[in-house]
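Appendix C reproduces, verbatim, an entry submitted by the partner laboratory led by Prof. M.T., so that reviewers can inspect both the input and the predicted structure.
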Amino acid sequence: STPIKSSAASDVYKRQRKEFPNAVFTKVDLDRDKGLYEYELDFYTAEVRGEMKFNPETGAVLEKEIKYNVH
């Protein structure tokens, strides 16, 4: 994986924050999967932890995995 540039990271953060505004980010990488690039973002909030993958050209969410914290 390759760390992404700050301007691209900012766009990814903005997209993710629409759904989880209080998220703390633990990883943002630009990965290559089957010859295609994707942004991978790991995060957590008080209620959930998750991973989202975005298409770097369109910003479309490619994959989302959310796990709810049980208190």
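Helices lie at 6-19. Additional entries are available on request from the coordinating office.
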